[in-house]
Specification:
single chain, 468 residues, alpha/beta, Rossmann fold, 2 domains, two-stranded antiparallel ribbon, 15 helices, 13 strands
Length: 468
């Protein structure tokens, strides 16, 4: 039994070996066949199973892509070779320069010039560059480093390098600026430049004029020499009262007293006239003082004790007309109010107590402490200066008053008790106003008196507006 089993096993083993040999025989039948043929023979045919077709054991299915580590290693080797080539070139250049210096020292030749040293250094650098390039070209990467000619050639310091020429479209004439007109010429542009400069000059001049401090002229009081008096009383004096000057200067303006002018001066002749003051000053204030002479309004003197001051009348009447003709504002105080009425053809009461027995008391020995009430009639411009105030209290220091109103004059204020005219205004001028009271005394007179600061401000505002 065992023998039979052994023989049977041997026979089966021989059969499997023969079958395997028969299957391997076709594969090794043509050992000299090319790999492509072998791959074709080994590839599964159209009748092969899906498992055989999906098999990747064939050599043709292997990938030809090299690993990343291998590429990086090659690049590192190339860079190392380039560095070694540059180092060898630099050492060779240094050795060559040392040999040249040793040869010059042995032969006793003079030291090379700067140009020769520069040329030798340039040649050595070119040699080292060529060595580096050859080393790079021999590197395993196969890529040679090529430098531009300007980096490998010696510089030529005597050669000019002009800027590149513009392109034809760039070399064309520039377009006309947008701010110029198509019809502009050189002369028209020049004319606009001159006009702009002129406007700039005029603007600066106007700014200086508007910002300049106001200059207000004040008429002078005149003290005539007393007969037989000696010293100062024997001279003609011209002065102004301190209160009126300080009242005007309280608004930060300059005050100038205007003296009389002598047309036929025997000692000190002058060509200065009152119109020159009206030209250079910005406004006129006529201050109080002596009575207006009846001769100035063509009436006979009824009271010898009040003859008035004819000399001052003539001087102030001329001064008033010069400022009115110049368009400059005029403010009259007390006597100034009466003079404005006389200048335009009006008349005066020589003495209120004598001419108007029913009138109240308008003068007293208390001087600036005496006062009475006034009211502003309908149409008075003082209502605009003092809004919501139709009645007020003012001081009273006058025994003359407006009798008949002058031409083109309006009544601006009257006495509340007797109707005596207390203020007038000339209609045909920007500002010609006269008030019978003394506004410069009101601040010191107490809070019950009318604060006349709006009157002064209006006068100065018109002076600023009409100065040019």
């Amino acid at each position: 039994m065992s023998d039979n089993k052994t023989s049977n096993d041997a026979s089966s083993t021989d059969a499997r070996r023969s079958g395997a040999d028969s299957q391997a025989a076709p594969r090794s039948a043509n050992p000299t066949a090319p790999p492509e043929a072998a791959a074709a023979a080994s590839a599964p045919g159209p009748k092969a199973s899906a498992t055989e077709r999906a098999s990747t054991d064939a050599p043709s299915s292997a990938s030809n892509v090299e690993p990343v580590d291998t590429v990086q290693a090659r690049q590192d080797d190339a860079q190392q070779a380039a560095r070694e080539a540059r180092a060898s070139a630099a050492s060779a250049t240094a050795a060559q320069e040392a040999a040249v210096r040793e040869q010059q020292r042995a032969s006793g030749k003079p030291r090379a010039s700067l140009a020769e040293n520069l040329e030798a250094a340039t040649e050595a650098e070119a040699a080292s560059t060529a060595s580096a390039q050859s080393a790079s070209s021999d590197s395993p990467s196969g890529r040679a480093t090529v430098l531009p000619p300007e980096f490998t050639q010696a510089p030529d310091f005597g050669k000019l390098n002009p800027p590149p020429l513009p392109l034809p479209e760039q070399a064309a004439a520039p377009a006309q600026p947008a701010y110029l007109k198509h019809s502009d010429s050189a002369w028209s542009v020049f004319g606009r430049i001159i006009a702009a400069r002129a406007r700039q000059i005029f603007d600066r001049a106007g700014q200086r004029i508007t910002q300049r401090t106001l200059r207000i002229g004040v008429s002078a009081r005149i003290f005539h020499p007393e007969p037989g008096a000696k010293g100062l009383r024997g001279k003609t004096l011209q002065y102004l009262e301190e209160s009126i000057a300080h009242w005007v200067m309280s608004r930060d303006v300059l005050v100038f007293m205007i003296p009389t002018v002598g047309h036929q001066g025997m000692l000190h002749p002058s060509n200065i006239r009152l119109r020159d003051y009206a030209k250079h000053l910005d406004g006129l204030l006529l201050q109080g003082g002596a009575d207006v002479s009846p001769q100035s309004y063509e009436e006979a003197t009824t009271r010898p004790e009040w003859p008035g001051d004819r000399v001052r009348d003539m001087y102030e009447l001329e001064l008033l007309h010069e400022f009115v003709e110049s368009g400059k504002p005029v403010l009259g105080v007390c006597r100034g109010c009466q003079l404005i009425n006389v200048a335009f053809g009006g008349t005066l009461y020589g003495d209120i107590a004598t001419d108007v027995p029913t009138a109240g008391l308008h003068v007293s020995e208390h001087y600036d402490q005496h006062r009475h009430s006034i009211r502003f009639p309908d149409g008075s411009t003082l209502v605009n200066m003092f809004p919501n105030q139709r009645d007020a209290i003012v001081n009273s220091i006058h025994h003359q008053a407006v009798k008949s109103i002058g031409r083109d004059l309006n009544i601006e204020a009257v006495s509340a008790s007797d109707g005596i005219i207390e203020a007038v205004r000339y209609r045909k001028a920007p500002f010609v106003v006269g008030v019978q009271w003394h506004p410069e005394f009101h601040r010191a007179g107490g809070s019950e008196l009318l604060d006349c600061t709006p009157l002064l401000d209006t006068f100065l505002r018109v002076a600023r507006e009409t100065r040019f």
